[in-house]
Amino acid sequence: MKPQFEHVTIPKGCSIRVFNRQIPEIPFEWHRHPECELTLTLNSRGLRFIADHIGEYGSHDLVLVPSEMPHTWASTKAIDEASPHVAVVVWFTESWALQLADICPEYCSLRKLLKRAAGGLSFPHSSGAMMESRLAGLLSNSASDRLRTALDVLIELADTDAVSLATPQKPARMTADESVQFNRILDLLHERFAEPLRVQDVCAAGNMSERSLHRLFVRHLGETVTGYLGRLRIGRACMWLVETDRPIGLIAADAGFSNLSNFNRRFRTARRMSPKEFRRYYVKHGRMPDLEEFDLTKRSPSLETSKRRNLSTTFGASRCLHTWAEAACEAATDRGSAPHVMRSLL
């Protein structure tokens, strides 16, 4: 049930990143990242998972998630089914916010806000409506307008009553040097995923030994370099399968797989279906299949107990929600957002 690591890139010359996500449904994507995240959800209902918290959400759901805390939303329906689910996300680093609080007295309440958000914060509907009213500034083409609006929202939230969601965690923190090394490694993998990289190439990017590389990934991502890169390869293949009509053999080669049979085997392991079945599903339903659709009635074989549970008939019960979350977390092997790995790493 280790959360997947999301590599959030804040644009050069910017202090924050704003993302306006509009999709047919919000999939279960159990993940974490070093950045703090403020998420406003619109036209959507479903379940919200923040570390050990599980709860329902509706439109104008506004939540602040602290650095490194695992989280995801999973929609059950749109309020207006003719319109997409919307998630407006603001990412920023904790160190930036704290430095701003130290330097500018006007923003000293940011320190209080981050302290309150140690377990994640859920704000009232009125706060969600407040943030929605400022979307023009948040989604502006001007970086300064986005920053100004985001700061106004955060300062207002600092003095707003909110509900703590999860048990505060003490995740392994990266040092400044580790952060630089880690970003260099991830940039290398994302830029050159189709090339025959060697472990030595990856180590050189981070200026570290193979042992240190392994320890860094396991400590901060919860998986090995091989596992991370393998998941990224499948993610890239999934994107090409639904976005193009290219032959599966070409997609396999471009994703860096040595042969088609190897690609088919790894794809089936990750997605519980063949690449051809995956593409057919998308053509028929207009969306990527979610792994939990195929595995909701049984627990992952990696768990100590394999007792079957019928989650579909007791979905609203808290106990079954925890079981479903465990199964879904184990199943969520693909974020569908990028890259790949070389044979020498596998």
Provide a descriptive summary of the structure in words.
This protein has 346 residues and is of the alpha+beta class. Helix content is 42%, strand content 16%. A 6-stranded antiparallel sheet has the order 2-9-4-7-10-11. The longest helix is centred in the last third of the chain and has 19 residues, at 225-243.
Write a concise synopsis of the structure shown:
The chain has helices at 94-103, 109-116, 125-132, 135-138, 143-158, 176-191, 199-206, 210-221, 225-243, 248-254, 260-271, 275-285, 318-331, and strands at 4-5, 17-23, 31-32, 36-42, 45-50, 53-57, 61-65, 71-77, 85-92, 121-123, 163-164. It has 346 residues and is an alpha+beta fold.
Query: Can you tell me the number of structural domains?
Result: 2
At CATH's second level, what is the architecture of the largest domain? Orthogonal Bundle
Which structural class do you get from the secondary structure elements?
A: alpha+beta
CATH homologous superfamily heading of the largest domain: Homeodomain-like
Strand line-up of the largest beta sheet: 2-9-4-7-10-11
- CATH C-level class of the largest domain is Mainly Alpha
Which consecutive residue ranges, at least 5 long each, have pLDDT under 50?
292-344
